[in-house]
């Protein structure tokens, strides 16, 4: 019998609010390994153990061959596998030094749109779209085993309420902090406003795009921090 639990998460469609939504997830107590599934297949197949293992190997090999050749394969009563690709990211190589009398070097692949070719494309992942009949059969088997069992009750982190309720007031507090300390990190903003670290990060990114916030961003990645925007005009 499968078990499930309910979890409350913040509504990412409106991260500045305290709204939550409930999602339902299966509780995986264990997972079949490839060897366990192969053993189960052999015990429940009309084929012998050796032939069952060979059949699984042949199925995987044929699936690999067909995906590499046509890109999309539908397996009867299971679903459709399809290949997704991406362009490789190249760093532009340093041009070699040229001395008088040398021939000009050949153009290198710099990863730009104009330089993308067959060698620049790689398989990113394989998509799987489940067959509707297969999904219904899984549902009927779950119902046949006594449906689902709720475990653990309602799970999820408690929503952290900011000490400063309104966003404009948080921006004003950040500007006052920057007037004294000249720069501010995400952790500083989180401590100042009472927001969680992830909420503070999202709000500072937003602040850096708004003219009325008075906050600007500088640096990148782990070296990113925030300063007072030049000629700031903070709306009260």
What can you tell me about this protein's structure?
The protein is built from six helices and eight strands; from the N terminus they run ββααβββαβαααββ. It has 236 residues and is an alpha+beta fold. Among the domains are: 3-78 and 131-155, no CATH class; 167-228, Winged helix-like DNA-binding domain superfamily/Winged helix DNA-binding domain (Arc Repressor Mutant, subunit A), CATH 1.10.10. A hairpin with a 6-residue loop joins strand 7 (215-218) and strand 8. 33% of the residues lie in helices and 23% in strands. It is elongated.
Strands of the largest sheet, in order across it? Answer: 2-1-6
Q: Count every beta strand, where a strand is a DSSP E run of 2 or more residues.
A: 8
Count of runs of 4 or more consecutive helical residues: 6
Q: Please report the distance between the alpha carbons of the first and last residues.
A: 58 Å
Low-pLDDT windows of residues: 97-111
Taking all Cα atoms into account, the compactness measure Rg is: 28 Å
Task: Please name the defining characteristics of this protein.
236 residues; 3-stranded mixed β-sheet; 3-stranded antiparallel β-sheet; Arc Repressor Mutant, subunit A; 6 helices; alpha+beta; 33% helix
């Amino acid at each position: 019998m499968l078990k499930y639990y309910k979890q409350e998460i913040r509504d990412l469609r409106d991260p500045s609010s305290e709204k939550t939504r409930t999602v339902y997830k299966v509780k995986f107590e264990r997972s079949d390994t490839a060897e366990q599934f192969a053993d189960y297949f052999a015990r429940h197949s009309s084929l012998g153990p050796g032939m069952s293992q060979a059949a699984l190997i042949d199925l995987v090999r044929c699936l690999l061959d067909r995906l590499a050749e046509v890109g999309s394969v539908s397996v009867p009563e299971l679903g459709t596998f399809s290949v997704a690709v991406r362009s490789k990211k190249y760093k532009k190589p340093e041009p070699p030094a040229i001395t008088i009398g040398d021939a000009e070097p050949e153009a290198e692949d710099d990863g730009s749109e104009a330089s993308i070719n067959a060698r620049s494309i790689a398989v990113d992942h394989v998509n799987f779209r489940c067959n509707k009949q297969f999904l219904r059969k899984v549902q009927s088997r779950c119902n046949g085993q006594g449906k689902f069992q709720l475990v653990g009750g309602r799970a999820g982190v408690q929503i952290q309420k900011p000490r400063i309720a309104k966003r404009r007031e948080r921006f004003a507090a950040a500007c006052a902090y920057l007037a004294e300390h000249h720069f501010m990190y995400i952790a500083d903003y989180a401590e100042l406003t009472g927001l969680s670290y992830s909420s503070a990060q999202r709000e500072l990114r937003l602040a850096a795009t708004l003219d009325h916030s008075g906050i600007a961003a500088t640096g990148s990645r782990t070296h990113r921090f925030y300063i007072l925007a030049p000629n700031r005009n903070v709306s009260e």
